[in-house]
Amino acid sequence: MPQGILLVSQGGILLNGGDELLWSRNGECWGWETGLKPNTMPWANKARYRFASEYLAGLIALRREHPAFRLGSAEVIRQRLKFLPPQQLPDPTCIAFTIDTTTLVGEGWTSAFVIINPTTEAQSVRLPDAQTWQIYVENGQASINAIAVATNHIKVAGRTMTVLARQ
What we know:
Layout: H1 2-7, H2 45-48, H3 50-65, H4 74-80, E1 81-83, E2 95-100, E3 111-117, E4 123-126, E5 132-138, E6 141-142, E7 148-151, E8 153-156, E9 160-166
Antiparallel strand pairs: 1-2, 2-3, 3-9, 4-8, 5-6, 5-7, 5-9
């Protein structure tokens, strides 16, 4: 989920090499002092954690395809991005926001809706309006093509992020 939050955020991003392999230094935070073992990229993880690599690739492709996630200035972000008030969400730790993408050059969507559920439990979130929304990120899947549709409500699994849009 952290990479997902980063990739739907506004502004420049930096991904750490090895994120797509679920690489860690096994608790070693000073990599330059520990020798080669904790700093060696675990290439065997590419096959083992293929789902993570595909998810990250899908998120990167989605960000690249949609200017909604690359608004150019703080002023434009304030105009187009609106957070839902906590009282409209099922849990106060959930975060949800819409991005108005009408008239955004190069954008095929009219609106995007991002929901972040940091809880361990699935949460039912009411969609901003009764129209049908296409789902592009859900349950560890991310694509530039819609993977499902939702109307009225969506159930967001625990510790995941969901991205929906209308065209």
